[in-house]
């Protein structure tokens, strides 16, 4: 009956608000709380207008409501600096944490590649890598599930307007984290990531190029089919995910040229890089909810604490 | 124009920007012999890196014959007076590369961003400054925005710790008046302790003229490359600039004849193709496109039957910026599909 899992969003910025709008349509996740630190913030006002409860005292302010409101999922859209503490406090209460920050204290999650495994293992903290990672790692995995990939390289080109100050202050974190996940999740033996910020007006839609160097001659038919299948998998949660050109084969190089258009919920359509993060985060939570509903996993036990 | 009595520091690009023209295949021996000869000729500063800077080794930009470590490790110990610089583009290279370069003895780091995106350079400029390096903020494709925007972005880089700011004409698009305006504004508005530099490309054959305009407007550092070995139609040919500055009484501290000999005897023989203002290089300058796109567009022309000029003009129309080499094959494929060629 109550199949939907209740959720809290931490961080009422652009990402948190976009996530809330997507969550309102979800069959599996019900947004209950939006957590911020400034009672006057636009984000908290928007959340109140959208009919969910808000808390301006940070994660500490929400802890007492977790059990009575049966919060099972938290999305952290704040920053890497505070994520570890947020996660520890909520995990202790049996809340699964979906990490949209670059903190990456839990395993990387790219839904069509490894989400099912994380859900079955009931991972209590999963990290959504980076926007570039969400857009490209499915393609690396599409090649590496056909034959070994010696080297995987991704180039993410995003509009200047869609890159916030956090990413700009630590752009190395993007390249390192994404390259690491190209290896760990994408299955490439060595990974490399490049990010280009383009200020053109009107803003360009997120573009991503994926180059894989295969061991031996690429099996063109099998790789082409695998890539097209994987595109369909991503399109289930990001309808604007498109293979513009490719796969192109040149010696042992396999290249795919992608475009990611967002849904245009809170963030504009060109910001496919942000949209694919919120969509992937929500998809991840939904998978946990589906697995819990069909009994494949048991959510952490919880009883109402005695209260004075 | 009167440059009499002025002093300028020339910075050679042939072993970094020249890597574009050589598809990053310059050998370690060639690097060492050229750098040694330039050192002997009195060149004060020589850049040695992959064409796209530290960490540029990639499918996207090309794998070099050797790693940045190998090139820097071979060249730096051989230098008697010249200092060696390295380029770093945030988004491609990281602070790990920066530390590696510092350990190998690189004295000048040039942190390059698109001319509107200076705020991605904070962590790299800050760290270079903390390591006491000569730290340059390098604003690329500076023709794309007005002078006031260049100044705003330069101030960010100065705030992070840069002691020198470059106005970089990556597309070889600028004409001398624009150089005068932009360098002049930077010189007038930034503190005297901050040096100003100019990096030109010769796509409209303006390399020397633009460099003179920059010096007149207050630039203290000028990039060029001996024999012009660089992306597009190359950089400002340094031996030519050196001769012109000699005639004008502007001091460079460089031996002109020795520099001419490096150009003629060492660099020209290793060119894979003449570095000149050909049809496609001229298109780069005319359409305002990043110079290192040249060979990629020519390769796409061969592979997909779309003229390099058409590809470059369209890339300019779309406002592509430095580093978007992947767009070239992507666009060529799309254009070839539209024409029914594939």
TrEMBL record, chain A:
<feature type="binding site">
    <location>
        <position position="273"/>
    </location>
    <ligand>
        <name>NAD(+)</name>
    </ligand>
</feature>
<keyword id="KW-0058">Aromatic hydrocarbons catabolism</keyword>
<feature type="domain" description="Semialdehyde dehydrogenase NAD-binding">
    <location>
        <begin position="6"/>
        <end position="121"/>
    </location>
</feature>
<dbReference type="Pfam" id="PF01118">
    <property type="entry name" value="Semialdhyde_dh"/>
</dbReference>
<feature type="binding site">
    <location>
        <begin position="162"/>
        <end position="170"/>
    </location>
    <ligand>
        <name>NAD(+)</name>
    </ligand>
</feature>
<dbReference type="InterPro" id="IPR003361">
    <property type="entry name" value="Acetaldehyde_dehydrogenase"/>
</dbReference>
<dbReference type="Pfam" id="PF09290">
    <property type="entry name" value="AcetDehyd-dimer"/>
</dbReference>
<feature type="active site" description="Acyl-thioester intermediate">
    <location>
        <position position="131"/>
    </location>
</feature>
<protein>
    <recommendedName>
        <fullName>Acetaldehyde dehydrogenase</fullName>
        <ecNumber>1.2.1.10</ecNumber>
    </recommendedName>
</protein>
<dbReference type="InterPro" id="IPR036291">
    <property type="entry name" value="NAD(P)-bd_dom_sf"/>
</dbReference>
<dbReference type="InterPro" id="IPR000534">
    <property type="entry name" value="Semialdehyde_DH_NAD-bd"/>
</dbReference>
<keyword id="KW-0520">NAD</keyword>
<keyword id="KW-0560">Oxidoreductase</keyword>
<dbReference type="InterPro" id="IPR015426">
    <property type="entry name" value="Acetylaldehyde_DH_C"/>
</dbReference>
<comment type="similarity">
    <text>Belongs to the acetaldehyde dehydrogenase family.</text>
</comment>
TrEMBL record, chain B:
<keyword id="KW-0456">Lyase</keyword>
<feature type="binding site">
    <location>
        <position position="199"/>
    </location>
    <ligand>
        <name>Mn(2+)</name>
    </ligand>
</feature>
<feature type="binding site">
    <location>
        <position position="201"/>
    </location>
    <ligand>
        <name>Mn(2+)</name>
    </ligand>
</feature>
<dbReference type="Pfam" id="PF00682">
    <property type="entry name" value="HMGL-like"/>
</dbReference>
<dbReference type="InterPro" id="IPR050073">
    <property type="entry name" value="2-IPM_HCS-like"/>
</dbReference>
<comment type="similarity">
    <text>Belongs to the 4-hydroxy-2-oxovalerate aldolase family.</text>
</comment>
<keyword id="KW-0479">Metal-binding</keyword>
<feature type="binding site">
    <location>
        <position position="17"/>
    </location>
    <ligand>
        <name>Mn(2+)</name>
    </ligand>
</feature>
<dbReference type="InterPro" id="IPR012425">
    <property type="entry name" value="DmpG_comm"/>
</dbReference>
<keyword id="KW-0464">Manganese</keyword>
<feature type="binding site">
    <location>
        <position position="170"/>
    </location>
    <ligand>
        <name>substrate</name>
    </ligand>
</feature>
<dbReference type="InterPro" id="IPR035685">
    <property type="entry name" value="DRE_TIM_HOA"/>
</dbReference>
<dbReference type="InterPro" id="IPR017629">
    <property type="entry name" value="4OH_2_O-val_aldolase"/>
</dbReference>
<feature type="active site" description="Proton acceptor">
    <location>
        <position position="20"/>
    </location>
</feature>
<feature type="binding site">
    <location>
        <begin position="16"/>
        <end position="17"/>
    </location>
    <ligand>
        <name>substrate</name>
    </ligand>
</feature>
<feature type="site" description="Transition state stabilizer">
    <location>
        <position position="16"/>
    </location>
</feature>
<feature type="binding site">
    <location>
        <position position="199"/>
    </location>
    <ligand>
        <name>substrate</name>
    </ligand>
</feature>
<feature type="domain" description="Pyruvate carboxyltransferase">
    <location>
        <begin position="8"/>
        <end position="260"/>
    </location>
</feature>
<dbReference type="InterPro" id="IPR013785">
    <property type="entry name" value="Aldolase_TIM"/>
</dbReference>
<dbReference type="InterPro" id="IPR000891">
    <property type="entry name" value="PYR_CT"/>
</dbReference>
<feature type="binding site">
    <location>
        <position position="290"/>
    </location>
    <ligand>
        <name>substrate</name>
    </ligand>
</feature>
<dbReference type="Pfam" id="PF07836">
    <property type="entry name" value="DmpG_comm"/>
</dbReference>
């Amino acid at each position: 009956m109550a199949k939907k899992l209740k959720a809290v969003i931490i961080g009422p910025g652009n990402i948190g608000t976009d996530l809330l709008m997507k969550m309102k349509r979800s069959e599996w996740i019900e947004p209950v709380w939006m957590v911020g630190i400034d009672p006057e913030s636009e984000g908290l006002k928007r959340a109140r207008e959208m009919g969910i409860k808000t808390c301006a005292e940070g994660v500490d302010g929400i802890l007492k409501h977790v059990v009575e409101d049966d919060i099972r999922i938290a999305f952290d859209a704040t920053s890497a600096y505070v994520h570890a503490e947020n996660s520890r406090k909520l995990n202790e209460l049996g809340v699964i944490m979906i990490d949209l920050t670059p903190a990456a204290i839990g395993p990387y999650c790219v839904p069509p590649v490894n989400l099912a495994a994380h859900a079955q293992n009931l991972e209590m903290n999963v990290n959504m890598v980076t926007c570039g990672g969400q857009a490209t790692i499915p393609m690396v995995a599409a090649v590496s599930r056909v034959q070994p990939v010696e080297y995987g390289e991704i180039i993410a080109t995003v509009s200047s307007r869609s890159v916030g100050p956090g990413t700009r202050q630590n752009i190395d974190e993007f390249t390192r984290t994404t390259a690491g996940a190209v290896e760990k999740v994408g299955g490439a033996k060595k990974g490399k990531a490049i990010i280009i910020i383009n200020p053109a007006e009107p803003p360009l839609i997120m573009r991503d190029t994926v180059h894989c160097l295969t061991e031996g001659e690429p099996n063109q038919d099998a790789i082409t089919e695998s890539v097209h299948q994987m595109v369909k998998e991503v399109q289930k949660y990001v309808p604007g995910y498109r293979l513009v050109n490719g796969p192109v084969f040149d010696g042992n190089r396999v290249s795919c040229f992608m475009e990611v258009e967002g849904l245009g919920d809170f963030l504009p359509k060109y910001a496919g890089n942000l949209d694919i993060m919120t969509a992937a985060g929500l998809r991840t939570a939904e998978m946990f909810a589906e697995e819990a509903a069909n009994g494949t996993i048991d959510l952490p036990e919880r009883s109402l604490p005695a209260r004075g | 124009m009167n440059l009499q009595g002025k002093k300028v520091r020339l910075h050679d690009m042939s072993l970094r920007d020249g890597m574009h023209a050589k598809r990053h295949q310059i050998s370690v021996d060639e690097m060492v012999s050229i750098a040694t000869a330039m050192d002997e000729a009195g060149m004060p500063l020589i850049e040695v890196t992959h064409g796209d800077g530290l960490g540029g080794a990639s499918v996207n930009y090309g794998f070099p014959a050797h790693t940045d470590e190998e090139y820097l490790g071979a060249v730096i110990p051989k230098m008697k007076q010249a200092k060696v610089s390295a380029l770093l583009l945030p988004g491609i290279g990281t602070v790990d590369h920066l530390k590696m370069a510092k350990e190998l003895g690189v004295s000048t780091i040039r942190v390059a961003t698109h001319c509107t995106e200076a705020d991605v350079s904070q962590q790299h400029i800050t760290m270079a400054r903390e390591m006491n390096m000569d730290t340059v903020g390098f604003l690329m494709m500076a023709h794309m925005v007005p002078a006031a925007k260049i100044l705003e972005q330069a101030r960010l880089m100065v705030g992070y710790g840069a002691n020198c700011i470059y106005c970089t004409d990556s597309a070889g698009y600028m004409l001398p008046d624009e150089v005068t305006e932009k360098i002049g504004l930077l010189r007038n508005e930034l503190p005297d302790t901050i040096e100003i530099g100019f990096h030109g490309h010769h796509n409209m054959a303006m390399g020397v003229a633009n460099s003179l305009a920059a010096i007149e407007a207050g630039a203290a550092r000028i990039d060029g490359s001996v024999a012009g070995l660089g992306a597009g139609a190359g950089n400002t040919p340094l031996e030519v600039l050196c001769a012109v500055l000699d005639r004008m009484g502007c001091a460079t501290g460089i031996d002109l004849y020795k520099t001419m000999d490096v150009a003629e005897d060492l660099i020209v023989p290793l060119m894979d193709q003449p570095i000149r203002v050909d049809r496609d290089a001229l298109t780069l300058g005319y359409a305002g496109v990043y110079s290192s796109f040249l060979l990629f567009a020519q390769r796409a022309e061969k592979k997909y039957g779309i003229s390099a000029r058409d590809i470059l003009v369209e890339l300019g129309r779309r406002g592509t910026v430095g580093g978007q080499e992947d767009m070239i094959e992507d666009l060529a494929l799309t254009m070839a599909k539209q024409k029914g060629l594939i």
